[in-house]
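User: quick one, fold this
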Amino acid sequence: MVVFTDGQPDKSAYRRFRIRADAGGNDLIAMREALTRRFQKAEENEAGFLPLPDLLVMDGGPAQLQVALEVLESFSLDFIPTIGLAELSETIYIPGEETPIQLPRNSAPQHLIERLRDEAHRFAISYHRNIHNRNALYSVLDSIPGVGDKRKRALFDAFLTIEAIKAASQEELAAVPLIDSRTAESVYQYFHKESPVDSESPVEETK
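Assistant:
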């Protein structure tokens, strides 16, 4: 979820939702869950989810717009203006209107909508890349004794990638919360262990 305030990205208000339902690749199910959780938190006055938006823009056409309208109605928030933005074409769907509208090319509203769409896509891509990096990192760290879930999470939060952990010194590893000196040494040695020399392998020399 991205937020624009006065026409500019308000990154402090961005939020990510790890979908709990078995969406099976169905973006409508995922969208319904994300919207429901977002407005549930607003209803509970949770910090970071207020104030309510002046305009809700859905990334999609009539189907995505309908999901948003149903969620808003369930929270008695159907007074919030909501539109659907069709991918790439910047075609806007408005509730109750059969024919979508097309913003004038090179107009200020069109440029704002384009920026909003591009920022939403960038944020989503970075999130999925982050998840991929975390899963890859967790898989590697599973092989290191003494590194459980909490320590894996701490290392990921500190370094983000396997390459960054490999490049870290023992002191840098030990500076991470929950990572004591013994664990730091284990992690460092795991990534810097030398391959043993096969004693039966021939050795070539030049003179």
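User: anything notable?
Assistant: The CA atoms of residues 54 and 149 lie 40 Å apart.
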